[in-house]
Amino acid sequence: MGWFGLTPRARDRVALALLGGIAFAATLYLLAPGWMAQDSGAQLAQARSLKLSDDHPPLMALIWHVTDGVLPGPLGMLVLMSALYWTGLTAIFATLDGPLALRLLALLVVGAYPPAAANLPGIWKDNLMHGALLFGVACFVVAAGGRRWRRWAGAALGVLAFLVAIGARHNGAAAVWPFLILLWLELPLLERRAPLVRWLAAAGASLVCTLALTIGLGKALAPLTQKTEFWQIVPVFDLAGMSLAAGEVLVEPETGVLTRGMGLREIGFKYNPRYVNSLYYCLPFKGKRCVPVFKRTVDAGQLERLRANWLRAIVQHPGAYLKHRWHVADRLLGDGAPALYFVDRAPHTEAALDYPPPRRTERLLSWVDAQFGSLWFLPLVYVALSIVLLPVAIWRHARGAPALPIVVLLSGLSYIASCVLSAGASDFRYTIYTISCSVLASGVLLVSFAQAFAPRWSAALAAVFRRGSSREVGPGVPSRRSV
After folding, report:
1. Are strands 52-53 and 225-226 parallel, antiparallel or unpaired?
2. Judging by DSSP bridges, how do beta strands 288-292 and 282-285 pair with one another?
3. Is the separation of the CB atoms in 128 and 60 below 8 Å?
4. Is pLDDT at 40 greater than 70 in this prediction?
5. Global confidence as pTM
6. d(Cα 403, Cα 3) in Å, to the nearest integer?
7. What's the pLDDT band for 345 if we cut at 50, 70, 90?
8. Disulfide-capable partner of 441 in 256, 405, 433, 435 (CB 3.0 to 4.6 Å)?
9. Structure confidence at residue 472 (pLDDT)
10. If pLDDT is split at 50, 70 and 90, which confidence band does 188 have?
């Protein structure tokens, strides 16, 4: 059999594992020790002090606390997140049927495609979520169709990875639930049902399961976490944008979040659909040099009134809400990221001064900075690609192809929808997971098409070759082939 007695399938997996390992090593060589933003510095401080708060995901701080003890600073997290990323992608392409050369190429292109890999240098919660999601779905597809113990082990490990993804970002659950569909589709109870019934039942069960995981993880981490009521920035952002769209102040005084006496004029000065925190900046007001437009509150009564005010305003002014969120979506998806992303504002946190990147890393990050605003770094392109690919993936699945591209696309679209509805900023890093999903689904579908049509192409070429070889060159003269 060659290759030390390995079967062809085993040789393919070894080749893919070697390429994945090389890509992982190259990632560390190019990006170590990792780039730290302001959020990264805050999370590292929490990881070292173990004084956790809910303005940053406490689970990431706990994980960073462990890696910091082994590889201090950003390097430990870079190793972990890159390992999850490349292991997940490698395992996914190892489970597919199709030409090895095409799968090797797809793994390299999908994993290293710059718009989909632009977050890899940063020590962000987005990267931890991204890597955990890829690793989790890889566990599911590797275990599918195997022995019972392997299916259970794969399901358990995949769910654990999805818990990490949920804990890594406040809206991580929006990306998790489509992947859990794969788990429910395997149930014998649904196997004999009509396809639409199977999918609807699996989707409903996945949503319930994801909600249970999210609530359970939140309750488990609550005793370790100081509550800052971070969620209030979303209703404040929406109420500010809706007020400007409606032409009247929709923030009720009883909420206590808007400085008394301020109105549309002051809100308009600080409202920025790209960045919610500007609403909390100050301006001269009533003889004082610096008064914040909005204030945060931890009062339970005010928070409850803020929640009610927010929901009531959306119901009563749906047009203003849609106009505000349209402005946010336009900047998030249409304009791309702000031009200054990595190097031009470095270091973004004092903690980064202890871990300076080498010159090769700075050159790579400068090149990434220069790409923003170009067509291939425009998130809207990949949202449109996902929408176009989804019916193609459904059509292929109806003809026996794996369901993987469907759930990958649903995960990316669900996640970006949650960002459009809840994000308080238009940072490009929020869109990278969706970009990655569209590229990954494209690669999986390409391999699927190659596997399905390669035998037909081979048969067609062979038939043409046979006809050509038997054709006579001239009257009574046999062809050169027959000679």
Report:
1. parallel
2. antiparallel
3. yes
4. yes
5. 0.91
6. 32
7. low
8. 405
9. 46
10. confident
The pLDDT assigned to 405 comes to 97
Vertex 227, ends 225 and 228: CA angle to 5°?
130
Q: Tokens for 470?
A: 């038997």
Pair 117, 467: CB distance under 8 Å: no
- Three-state SS for the chain is CCCCCCCHHHHHHHHHHHHHHHHHHHHHHHHCCCECCHHHHHHHHHHHHCCEECCCCHHHHHHHHHHHHHCCCHHHHHHHHHHHHHHHHHHHHHHCCCCHHHHHHHHHHHHHCHHHHCCCCECCHHHHHHHHHHHHHHHHHHHCCCCHHHHHHHHHHHHHHHHHHHHHCCCCHHHHHHHHHHHHHCCHHHHCCCHHHHHHHHHHHHHHHHHHHHHHHHHHHHHHEECCCHHHHHHHHHHHHHHHHHCCCCCCHHHCCECCCCCHHHHHHHCCCCEHHHHHCEEEECCEEEEECECCCCCHHHHHHHHHHHHHHHHHCHHHHHHHHHHHHHHHHHCCCCCCCCHHHCCCCHHHHHCCCCHHHHHHHHHHHHHCCCHHHCHHHHHHHHHHHHHHHHHHHHCCCCCHHHHHHHHHHHHHHHHHHHCCECCHHHCHHHHHHHHHHHHHHHHHHHHHHHHHHHHHHHHHHHHHHHCCCECCECCCCCC
Encoded tokens for 43? 């999370």
